[in-house]
Structure formats: C-alpha cells, structure tokens
Specification:
Blueprint: H1 2-32, H2 34-51, H3 57-70, H4 77-108, H5 116-145, H6 149-174, H7 178-203, H8 218-249, H9 252-265, H10 270-288, H11 293-318, H12 320-328, H13 331-363, H14 368-417, H15 429-443, H16 450-481, E1 501-507, H17 514-522, E2 529-536, H18 542-552, E3 558-562, H19 567-577, E4 582-585, E5 591-592, H20 596-606, E6 612-620, E7 626-630, H21 637-641, E8 653-655, H22 656-662, H23 673-681, E9 687-698, H24 711-714, H25 716-724, H26 732-751, H27 755-768, H28 776-786, H29 791-794
Parallel strand pairs: 1-2, 1-4, 2-3, 6-9
Antiparallel strand pairs: 4-8, 5-9, 6-7, 6-8
Length: 797
C-alpha cells in the first residue's frame, strides 16, 4: 500500500537522525560542557526557525507547481520555479544579514557563556547558511510536487544525521569550538542545497527551459501562503522562545537541562508528521468533494496515533530518571532534567494527536483560525514563561509549556469540531473518557515501585500495539476506498469528452468595463465555450462597445439587443438559448482569469454529484487594480439558510440539470435574484469550493450591488427568506434567519440614505431574535451600509 510505503519512507528520513542524536548528545554535553551545549542548542533552534522563514513560499511553490504539472503546462514550470526560488533566495539573504547584525546583541543577553566571542563567530557563520536553508525548502517543495518522496528522504536522511554527527566529530577532533561546529553545519547545509538542485534538474527537465523571472507568478505565490505564512513564522517561534527566555532569565546551563529532554521528545513528532504528510492530499480531495470519509479517516488517524504513542509517552515518563541516567551518565544533569522530561511527555502526546486536526484544517484551506490561535499564544506565552522561569525555575517553565501545548491542541480539535457535522468530535464520549482516565491514571504511577511501573508499561505497550494495528488497518482500508487516492494519484485527467459551457453576460450601462469582461471570456483556454452577451437597453454607449468587439472577434460570441427587462429576465433568456451542459453568468463589470473555465469544468467532472462549483476571487477597483483577495468558505447550508451568507460569487458554474430543476432567476426580483436562485439550487446537490483565485469582482460606486435602491428592493431579502426559509414550525433557526434578513434590509436602507428606515429594520431584527446583536457579522453589515462600502472590503466572517 502507498500509505504504508510513503509513511515508512518519511519515518526513515525523519527518524534515523534521532538514533544518531541519542548517541551524540551525551558526548556533546560531556565534551562541550553544559553552557556551550546550551549555545549549540540555540544555534540548532535558530537554524530550524529560519528554515521556515520563507513567508510560506515553500508550500506555495509546491501547491502551484503541482497544479502546473497536473495540467501539463510545461512552459510555466521554469518561470514559476525561478521566480519562487529567486524570492526565497532574497528572503534567505535578508534573514542572514539580520542574524549577522543581531548576533552580538543577542549573545550578550545569554548568561554564563564561557566564551562569548566564540559564540558570536559561530552565529555569524550560521548566518551564511540561511540562504541555503531557505532555498532548500523551495527545492524540496519542487520534488514533493513531483511526488518524489524517495528522493526527498534520501537527501533528508544524511542531512539530518550530519546535524548531530557533524558537531560530535568536530568536537572530538578539534576541541570545543562552536565556530568550527558552525562551519561544519553550514557546509552541510550548502551541500544539501546543491544536491537538491541537482535532483530537481534531473527529475524536472521542464525547468531547463525558459529560466526567467515572471512577475505574473509573484502574486499567486505570495497569496497562496496567506495565513499559513503566519503560522509558519509564529509556530517555530513559539517552539523555541522558551529556550531563549530561560537563557536570559536563568542561565545557559539551564537551557541544556531544559532542552535536552525536549529535543529528544519532540523527535516523536516525526511519527504523526510522517503519517499526516501522506494523508494531506487525501484529506484535501475528500474535503473538496464533501466526502464524509474525510472524518472517518480523521478518526482512524487520531485513534491510531493515540494507541501507538500513549504507551511510549507513559514509558518515557515513568522511566525518565533511569533512561536519562543510562543515556547521559551525569547524576546532576539527571536531577535537573528528569522532572522536566516527565512533564514534557504529556505535552508531546497531545501535540502529536493535534497534527491530525492541523493537517485537516490546512487541507481545507482554512488556515486563518489556526494562525489566530498561534498569534494569541505568542502575545501571552513569552511574558508568562519569562515571569514563571524567573520565579519558579525550570519546573515552572515546563508547566507553562504544557499549558500552552494543551490549549493549542484542544483549540485545533475544537476548530475541526465546529466544522464537523453534529455531534462533531463527541461521537464516542465513553471512548474519549476512558482514554483520558487511563492516561492520567498511568501518570499517577510516577513514584510507584519499579516492578509495578514495568508491568504497567508492558501492559500498555501490548494493548496499544494490538489496538493501534487494528486502527491502522481500518485507516488504510478507508484511505484505499476513498476516491481521492494518495498524493501521486491526486491529479486525475478527466476521461469523458469536454462538455460545452455557456456563459451569459447581461449588460446595462457598463461601457467603461464591459470590454474587459468580454475579453476575459474570449481569452479562456477552454475550447468549447458558447458566449452570449445581451445588451439590456443600455443608454451609455455599451451597445457601441459591444458592436466594436463583435467586429473585432467575429463569431466568437453572440450579441443580442433588447429593451430593458432587468438582470433576471435577461439571464433567463440567455440560458433558455444555451446549448451548454454547464452554465454560468458573468456580470458586465467582472472578469474571469484565463484558465477559469477549464479548471471549473475539471472540478465538476471530478465530482459528478456536485451541483455548483465556485471559486475564490479578487476584489478590483474601477481601474482594474487588485484591492484584496476573497478566500471563500466551504459551502454550508447553515451559513446560507441562517446567516444568509452566499458563498458562490463571480466564477460560479452549475450543471444544466440544476437549471432544469430549480428554474431560472425570479424576474420579479431586482436586488437578490442570485441569492434566491442559489437557495433553490442548493436543493439539487452539494456545492463545491475550488480554492483558486479564478475571477475578479469589481467594486465601484455605480455597481448594481451598491448603488441606492428603492424601499421595495431593500426589503426583497425579507420576502425571499419568508418564502424559502421560514417554516410554520417557527424554529429558532428560522427566527435567526428572519433577523438576519432584517439586518440586510437595514444595511440596504442605510446604503440608500434612509437612516430612519435602517434603524427601524434593525429594531425589528433585534425583536425577532435578540441574540442576533451579538453576531459580529451583523455590525459589519450595518457599518458597510452606512459607509456605502462593500461587505468584503470590511472583511467577511
């Protein structure tokens, strides 16, 4: 099975260096002394942190390159790769310069260093390695985009071993020189970069052509990272800030006591890391297809990790003094480190389990909540651990670390819980309770006799192995059944013939923008597009613009002119003429990106049960300049029918069967015919979010969505909700939906200058559902109405 093979490859690549660390760290402590080893631990920490200082470009390059390779756009491989690597090289150089300049001040903050000058020189040398560290992240991402897991781990293995073996060899031959150790580590980093580059050149022959800077790739690369970039920067800082704080508040020797057990225990992260890196593409496709199998796989993964790692964590905690004594042979070191290690084991277990919800959130493209949790921790954690370490020493610092890990892990599970169908994460509360009680009960045996501890650990290991293997088999079976497959099967070319796509554009007084709209459709790379443009009685010169475009592009689109009938009736006329199996509309001031149609059709073909596919989009101003990007949400019936948030925007495509079942737009509606149509369309099947920026939505004062409207149009949403959502049973969710409709009505009245009417509708909303006033989305909508600004410019919830 690919699941087992790829996980095993990752385990070998990440785990083998751990064996070298077990042997080398005691010798390094003995030969360097505790203070110098503490400084070496800080050098490792700085190098590891700056390895993630790529602003999310490593992950973005993997994502974009996988798309380009999957779509066989070979001519884009070299420009994309060169642009991304150039950006990452620049970032690595800036990081190196910053580390070089800050080295003297930083070293001065660390107490009890025997040779500060040596430490400064070592830091300067490591600054030279940072460009290589960041570039390696990008080159590794290119190999992962090609699913070359074997090569990735073949390079990762010796590089990881050298991280520990290099310093050991240098100290054994040349003495306790941090500068020479830094030279060895820096040379290893640059060698690894060159090896990665050589294999990229070999595995991706497309990179040999067109090796040029392409500014068009800069925005997709920088926006793909998004909130993931924030987590990439904050998470390692959270992981290492305690070491620097302890060095500044206690001593360099205390860093060694604290870091040694932490450095070994955190290597257990390679187990969930190896598993979740293989599950990531499967999660992504299952989530995209709304397959409930993603949650089944989620549960199996968490249970397998718990059953496999809980006995190991308990064993490390119960035998911490004995294990450290055998390993280090230093009684004083063991006295300081063993209690810290016992606390760390519980936190490591929790954080290993949290890898699964973190991977699920990243697979769904929903990185913002996790990043916000990490930012909140950063504000609190640094000052708190500094105060506790100063007053309560290492044990206090370890308890604060455990508290942070517990909060972070529970937050990740909660963020998945709120996105999971009821009852969320609490499907098997008895199992969860038993697992918690067994774990805490085992930790209560820390002071038990050796025989009892041994028997307890053996029993847990046997039971965990048996049950864990059972969960592994179940997870492998579920993963094999999933339509997503594994990473190297993630890109599937559709086998059926390409369907015709009909796009309708209704035009009314958009002479300034309609040419861009039409050109964006004519520039698509999809071969079967029927484009119908209907001028709905424009009086501003739009008709002349369209006639000129038709003369320039004869036969490329159908132009119809009619008396003004309204947007809904115009679209219905166009769709009634359509021959396409897939239908869409594009407002006459919006734009599609060049590959929008082909990518949306591919998404619909890959998920036959999906009724509507919609994408992310950019906000542009009247000049066509990008203002912001809108990362749409995964579709939610609750958000649609209760909070009245309609996820589909520009670039939404739906099947002809949806139109046949739901009918067209309601021609009696002028303000919310699209929302009412999506309400009916949602009864035809699931909606699918395609997490790519494929369209532009223009925000300007004269757009139909934001110009002043009549009282009847402002209240249309209330009528629609009453017709489609509010049922006779008057359930609380229906009261909430009506309250939200009245809030939107208030926003519309405020936008049109009817302040008194706006406040009247707001009072009615609070009377229908008083708790609605606690919703942030309510006040965003109200403020957006009064200031006549787009809801998206204020930020969607």
């Amino acid at each position: 099975m690919k699941l087992a093979r790829h996980t095993l490859l990752n385990l070998i690549g990440l785990g083998a260096p751990l064996l070298v660390a077990v042997v080398s760290i005691p010798e390094l402590i003995r030969l360097l002394g505790e203070a110098r080893f503490g400084m070496l631990a800080l050098i490792w920490a700085v190098t590891s942190y700056f390895g993630l200082f790529d602003l999310g470009l490593g992950r973005a390059l993997t994502q974009q390159l996988a798309i380009v390779l999957g779509e066989r756009m070979d001519h884009q491989v070299a420009p994309l790769s060169f642009t991304a690597l150039s950006l990452m090289t620049a970032i690595g150089c800036i990081a190196g310069v910053l580390l070089w300049l800050l080295a003297p001040a930083g070293i001065a903050q660390i107490k009890s260093l025997p040779d500060p000058v040596d430490a400064i020189h070592a830091t300067w040398v490591m600054a030279l390695a940072l460009p290589a560290v960041v570039m390696t992240t990008g080159l590794r991402g290119m190999l992962e985009a090609q699913h070359a897991f074997g090569l990735v781990n073949a390079i990762r293995l010796p590089m990881g071993i050298w991280t520990f073996a290099g310093p050991w060899l240098i100290v054994s031959w040349q003495g306790p020189s941090l500068t020479l150790i830094a030279v060895a580590l820096t040379a290893g980093r640059w060698l690894a970069t060159l090896v990665h580059a050589a294999y990229v050149w070999r595995v991706l022959p497309q990179v040999r052509q067109g090796w040029v800077w392409d500014p068009a790739w800069v925005r997709p690369l920088l926006t793909s990272g998004g909130w993931l970039m924030v987590s990439n920067l904050v998470s390692p800082l959270l992981a290492y800030v305690d070491r620097f704080v302890i060095g500044a508040c206690v001593s360099a020797a205390a860093v060694a006591y604290y870091t040694t057990p932490q450095e070994i225990l955190t290597k257990l992260w390679i187990i969930p890391g190896a598993l979740t890196s293989v599950l990531f593409p499967t999660f992504a496709l299952l989530i995209q297809r709304r397959d409930p199998g993603s949650w089944v796989l989620f549960d199996h993964a968490v249970q397998a990790l718990f059953l496999g790692l809980m006995p190991i964590s308990i064993a490390l905690a119960l035998f911490a003094p004995e294990l450290l004594g055998l390993w280090l042979g230093n009684a004083d070191f063991v006295t300081h480190s063993a209690p810290v290690m016992q606390i760390f084991t519980l936190g490591i277990l929790l954080s290993c389990l949290a890898h699964v919800p973190v991977t699920w959130l990243q697979s769904s493209g929903n990185n913002r909540p996790a990043a916000m949790v990490h930012l909140a921790q950063l504000v609190i954690y640094g000052p708190l651990i500094g105060w506790v370490a100063t007053h309560h020493g290492l044990i206090g610092a370890a308890w604060v670390w455990l508290l942070r890990i517990s909060v972070d892990s529970l937050a990740m599970f909660w963020l998945c819980h709120v996105r999971r169908p009821a009852p969320g994460m609490f499907r098997r509360p008895i199992r969860v309770a038993v697992a918690v009680l067994v774990t805490l009960g085992a930790y209560a045996a820390l002071d038990a006799p050796l025989v009892l501890r041994t028997a307890l650990v053996l029993g847990l290991l046997v039971a965990g192995a048996a049950l864990g293997y059972r969960q592994w088999l179940a997870m492998r079976e579920q993963q094999a059944r999933s339509p997503a497959g594994l990473a190297d099967e993630a890109v599937v070319e559709p086998r059926e013939p390409l369907p015709w796509v009909t796009i309708v554009t209704p035009v009314y007084n958009q002479a300034d923008f309609v040419a861009e709209t039409v050109q964006s459709v004519l520039s698509q790379d999809y071969p079967r597009i029927e484009y119908i443009v209907i001028d709905d009685g424009s009086s501003d010169g739009s008709a002349a613009v369209l006639q000129r475009l038709l003369a320039q592009h004869p036969g490329r689109f159908t132009l119809i002119t009619q008396s003004n009938a309204g947007q809904a009736a115009t679209l219905n006329r166009g769709w009634a003429m359509a021959k396409g199996e897939v239908l869409a509309y594009l407002s006459s001031d919006d734009r599609l990106h060049p590959q929008a149609v082909s990518r949306m059709v591919r998404a619909l073909q890959a998920a036959p049960d999906v009724a509507v596919a919609y994408c992310d989009f950019s906000l542009i101003d009247s000049r066509g300049d990008r203002m912001a990007d809108v990362m749409t949400e995964d579709f939610s019936e609750t958000r649609l029918r209760e909070q009245l948030v309609c996820q589909p925007g520009p670039g939404a495509f739906f099947r002809r069967a949806v139109y046949a079942k739901a009918g067209g737009w309601d021609a009696n509606l002028r303000q919310v015919p699209d929302f009412e149509f999506w309400l009916r369309a949602s009864q035809s099947g699931p909606f699918l979010r395609v997490p790519l920026l494929l369209a532009d939505y223009r925000v300007h004062d004269e757009s139909a969505s934001f110009r002043p409207m009549s009282e009847a149009r402002a209240d249309e949403i209330v009528m629609v909700v009453r017709r489609h959502i509010c049922m006779p049973d008057a359930a609380p969710r229906h009261h909430f939906a009506m309250g939200m409709a009245l809030v939107i009505s208030a926003m519309n009245h405020a936008q049109s200058g009817r302040v008194r009417m706006a406040f009247q509708r707001l009072r009615e909303a609070l009377r229908v559902h008083p708790a609605i006033g606690l919703q942030l989305i309510v006040w965003r909508r109200i403020v957006s109405g009064f200031f006549r600004r787009s809801y998206y410019r204020l930020g969607s919830s």
